[in-house]
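Final report, Chapter 2: Outcomes

The project's central promise was a pipeline that accepts a single protein chain and returns its three-dimensional structure in a standardized token representation, suitable for archiving and comparison. That pipeline is now operational. To close this chapter, we reproduce one record exactly as it appears in the project archive, with the input sequence first and the structure output second.
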Amino acid sequence: MLTIISFLICFSAGAQSLKKLIEIGDQYEAEGDYYSAQLEYEKAVLIDSVDIHLLFKYAEVLRKCNDHVKAEKYYSKIFGKDRGKIYPIGLFWLAEMQKHNQNYRPALKSWKKAANLFKKDKKSYEYRRARHEGLSTSWAMRSIKDSVEGAEVKNLGAPVNTSDWEFSPLPWQGKLYFSSLRSENSGPNLQVLDEDYTVKIYSADSMHADTDPIKKIASKINVPATNTATGTFSYDGTRFYFVQAGTDFKSAIYVADYKNGKWSDAKKMEGDINGDFISTHPSYVEIDNKAYLLFSSDRPGGQGKFDLYYAPLISDEKTGKAINLGKTVNSPDDEVTPQYNSRSKVLYFSSKWHKNYGGFDVFSSKGPLSKLSPPKNMGQPINTPWNDLHFTIDRNGDGFLTSNRLGSIFLKGPTCCNDIWSVKLQTHEEITNEIVIETLEDLNNYLPVTLYFHNDCPNPRTTDTVTDLNYLTTYRDYHELIPTYKKEYSNGLKEEKAIEAELDIEDFFKDYVDKGVSDLALFTGLLLKELEKGQNIELTIKGFASPLAKTDYNVKLTGRRITSLINYLREYDKGQFNEYIDATAENGGTLSFNKIPFGEYTASKLVSDNVNDTKNSVYSRAAGLERKIEVQSITQARRDSIFSEISCSQELFDFGALTEGAIVSHEFVITNSGNKPLEIEKVVTRCGCSVAEYPKEPILPGKEAKIKVTFNSTGMEGKQVKSATIVANSFPRSKRLVLTAEVFKK
């Protein structure tokens, strides 16, 4: 009996202690002191490790303290107990913690289970995120070993960084401004005892020195009992745009003057930038001599959570209408910390949504703010499986970022808090892939411009060699088929292989199809500028096809593809190229085309030609890479020069099917379309199987001549591509004539 009474007394005391620990933990959690809450819940879990509600409280504060390893352990325990019935969101967070911890394969399975758990509401953030993370996590698994060559990221160390929070680095005129939530007075268990424990802005007199004194900037900016975070200077350095918020962290954007080393009182920005929502991370930029503020906000009407916006500055203290950067950049999750390089037209920002290693990653997106390209992950070591934000870089490749990656200074946990890190890139251009092209001569170095097509397009199931369609029309139709390509190419594959197949398709469209259109836009503008100078320009355009149809059909198909590009040029900007194509321009400029429709003759032998295997013959990445045309070279002559010119209406001839041993010939008709007699020096063939006959006397301007090429197929089998190159005193200096055939054994 005494033993039973003693047990009941101990149980009652333990229960009372457990209840008190949870109450204290709940209070800390409500105040946002997740570290202190974690310590109380941890004691409670030692007493009761079965209560699923307590385990969930503990897992939540572990996650909020960035203790991803422990958080994964306890979310796993929770899901093991309830299978998502009591805390379905626990499975969601388990998947995220697994991704943070680079446990990508378990994360993939957890994301799939989470998508199934939340599928009743397919518009919900949880369902869309879980579905998206299948691709994102697979991408991380494939990319984790990749890194940006020559990139270095180093912790700035003390005194800039502490075991608390440092973030938002702003290099300006030799100084480093940054934000910090740092404690100067703490008690047991690192409990903060400061009277004013809020975010303040600090400055260091040197951006890289580790011995310079750190000091708070003016009290007119760092207002007591207010969170104040670093923002951005105007280009002339006279205005400072930054963030202020009360202890509820509901922030707004403010501005203060900075003149002659003195700060004015801060004023809250007027106009369409602040409101009954959070606005943060302002970034000043000037575009075409107009000033704008980029910022992040959770205002209504966005794509979800925090979106990126830009707003014109009507005055120093007021903006015009805020414009959302659009769904190409913004997502259902958070996009924050924008920086825009108006010179290179590159936007840098951080996001939790686009393909990432875990947490926030830094991305770049090219183009004007009104039409940005799909975001590109900046790769390692800039990004990690933790949070990487506030990226900034100058033209010399020197910059900073904020991260809680391993290597941060800590007392509460290795990834608990943010530090500021220096970034060194070999060159700014190497990371942004920025290419400065000012002339067609520059552009020639980066050719070919490659454009891709859907199977048998344009004008499927015809034998025409021309089309009425513009390439951009075929591109848009092709792009709309991405879901079909992903579905067909992943069909029948197991989970991970299916996701990898879908990623292959996404990467193909992004890295090849979309890039081709971007390159075409740049190329077209530069081409027009050269023609406006009176240049005589010839483009060599080659067409290719996958081996699904018969060879002679594919030659005609690639002819249609080349024509679609010429149609694009004819329709560009209300027909500005037509006078050059038709040789009627007053300035004498002309644009001609050297068209070589190879068809399938150069296609990879690894690409399926089985009409019943559409997965590989139509929808595979390999097949997609074969269906293209290429602008491969540009030649030009000044309008006031005297030259001979080789023109040929048909520069490729297909003999079709031949029996091995057959000897066949074709006569190419060439014209001297220049203003000087054309003298052919030689016609070069690359094998003894081809012999060329050509006129030895000069060909007068406007006159025609024939070049006969004889092909001997003895000892050959399969698809053959042979060439005869004319070398002459001409523009262009040489002209390549092509013969194709498919040789069968007797």
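Archive annotation: The longest strand covers residues 718-728.
This record, like all others produced under the grant, will remain available to the consortium after the project formally closes.
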